[in-house]
Amino acid sequence: MTGPATVVDRSRVLAWGLWDWGSAAFHAVVLTFVFSVYLTDVVGDGSPAAGAALGYAIGAAGLVIALLAPVIGQRADASGRRKLSTGVWTACTVATMAGLFAIRDDPAYLWPGLVLLAAGSVFAELAQVSYNAMLAQVSTPATIGRVSGFGWAMGYVGGIVLLLVVYYGFVAGDGPAAGLAGLPRADGFNVRVVALVAAAWFLVFALPLLLCVPEAPPAPDGPARLGVLGAYRALFADLGALYREDRHTVYFLGASALFRDGLAAIFTVGSVLAVGVYGIGAGDVLLFGVAANVVAATGAVAGGRLEDRVGPKRVIVASLLGMIAAATVLLVVSGPLMFWVFGLALVLFVGPAQSSSRTFLARLARPGREGQLFGLYATTGRAVSFLAPSLFGLFVSLFDAQRAGIVGIVLVLVAGLLALWPVRPPAMSAAAG
Questions:
Q1: Topology (CATH) of 10-212+225-427
Q2: Over the stretch 15-44, which tens digit does the pLDDT of each residue have?
Q3: What are the structural domain ranges in the chain?
Q4: What is the DSSP string of 225-252?
Q5: Within its chain, how far is the Cα of 236 from the centroid?
Q6: Which residues, in sequence order, are bridge partners of residue 188?
């Protein structure tokens, strides 16, 4: 089975979705809400240099991903080893997460911690390339939207559950012992244990995909397995051929790179704005993260079902318009209540935009070339990953106010919307209704 499935196997869909559930351990806990904060505010003593170092590390990781993603996708397609590729890079991610336990509360550990965090970002993104390419193996043309939405929702819900476990079990409280587990805060021990818990979480929930979803053999007329330089020559040749055959796919890759950068920036700077602008308590940021994941998961499921009726482009356009409206309101309101209301309104549209962007590409991909196309998807996304954070920082500097940084994110979302507007949507299956 190299192309889309003809019948949906619910157990395989569940196994596929559980990988998304498990990956929240890295994205929501390690990268966004817990360990990155520990590195900059505790290990790095909250200095501006520590924050800048985090930006450099994540930026370097983005460059590595941009260089490797298309090669990894092409090689997985050619060898028929998408599941194996997903498993290998997942194992590497888990190993780096577990390695963070060694990062003590000492400035000397800042750069080792950042290197592990950046390496984990690279491994997690490479795993995502092959994982996304497996979407066609567990869905049909008529159900690909709802299956993709289910996967995104599983990721959000997994983040919700684990954030609650982490908050109440290992972080809550003000005394020397943290959370219900009563672990000592000294030397960052409680947060370091969180890294081990997150690593185990990802490992356990990745296993169903590796055990229950069969490997897809390479397509008979699929690409040959190439070396690194050969893969890049094939990449540029295929990109040129893709432009000649269906330039709208290339247009979509460019448009999605823009608006996906805006989506990523929302989560990257959201906690900073919550505390620095709207007065949300530092501990309550985790609780807002839980609520945001609930809302985003609901939006992903609803958007996936709607997409199977109206197509992915309409869902993405509506989601971008909703995000732009909510972010504009946040520019002029103040206080924790307004942030909760309009911040949650903003993330409601993030889930459908993410899910439908993935299925937009999956509907366009030729059988046997999904991994290579999703590698290019990852590469184009990383190619402009500096844009929204840079514009955020520029507007903060120009107006000497963190709130003004929202303008930079809105501009990127608007640019993505305008670039997407003329893109022809993929053909819908007649079975989709």
A1: Growth Hormone; Chain: A; (1.20.1250)
A2: 999 999 999 999 888 887 788 878 877 888
A3: 10-212+225-427
A4: P--HHHHHHHHHHHHHHHHHHHHHHHHH
A5: 25
A6: none
